[in-house]
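Ticket #4471: structure export looks truncated?
Reporter: QA, pipeline team
Priority: medium

Steps to reproduce: submit the single chain below to the structure queue and open the exported record.
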Amino acid sequence: MKSCQMSKHRMLLVGIVAAAAALAACSQQPDPAQVQADVTKAQADAQKSVTDAQANLAKVRAENNQNVVKTQADAQLAAARSDSSHADASADVRDAQADAADKAADAQYDLAIAKAQAAERVAQAKCESETGSAKDACSAAAKSQYDAAVAQAKAQNDADHHRNH
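Actual output as written to the record:
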């Protein structure tokens, strides 16, 4: 009986020590060097994402310009040959311009989202320097700013599409 009670006491003691160790680990400040490394990595990843989105936007704009110019040239050629009516040629050019504007708006939206995601990743990495409720508040603020940026990008994209048609 005495060994059973000692076993219970040992198990209780081990449990208390384990709980205390876990609690101590939770309240420790994060390693500032690791947080800085994480922030630096998030910034580099973010910059790459934004740069890729900017390159895509430039590519879309160049392709759009090429398509619109080709459509205008085709319309002028058709008008000179009297192959089609002037109204048809003008409609083709308007359609090409509207399509180009939609593609540019979508690429601009993608860039805005990439920037929002980049800012959130960096902010969340910086939040790692906090603990407890301060960390929770920091993360919530980063998420809130991201959500607002996404909503603004969506509204702008919708307005651009509406304006193009």
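Status: closed, not a bug. The export was complete when the record was re-opened. Leaving a note from the reviewer for reference: The first helix runs from residue 2 to 27.
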